[in-house]
Structure formats: structure tokens, C-alpha cells
Amino acid sequence: MAQPDAGRVVVSVNGRMRAPSCAQQITWTILGSGDVLVATSLQPGNDAVPELPRFGMQTTLRAGFDRLVWYGKGPQETYWDRQDARSASIEAR
What we know:
By secondary structure, the chain is an all-beta fold. The chain has strands spanning 2-5, 8-17, 22-31, 36-44, 67-70, 88-91.
């Protein structure tokens, strides 16, 4: 955990996937405004794979946390061959 300035805390977690062997890092940046930014990166290992393995994240939000902006492909689950990427604002119901 790091606090680069008074309005921001950064938490990074490093882990490994077993098959195929890959390193993954997930970083949460919590801003003083209440925004939470989440980023993940994957570093392939020595296993030869024709495509990136499928990986992702799931989270549960408490009641009241109903404003979410997704900057990936979606807004539903997506796969590597989905070509209609767009930003989507998702409002929880």
C-alpha cells in the first residue's frame, strides 16, 4: 500500500496463475473523491499458449454504491474476439 499524496491511496497485489503459468498484478487506486480505479495486468510465463488465457475479476458492492463506469468491452461479459468495444456507463438497479 502506498499513499502518494493526501487524496490518493494505491493498493497493489501480485499473484500467479497456475495454468498457464502467468504473473498477474491488480492495482486499486482509491481517490479522496470516493472513486476507486481498478487496473490489472498479465505477464505471460514460459508456457507457450496461442492466446491469452481467460481471466477477470468479480466484486460485490454494498447498497448505495450504484454508480459505476466500465471502460472495457461490454457492458456484459466479453471474449477476445468481440470487436465492438465501447465505453459504457452502467447503473445498478
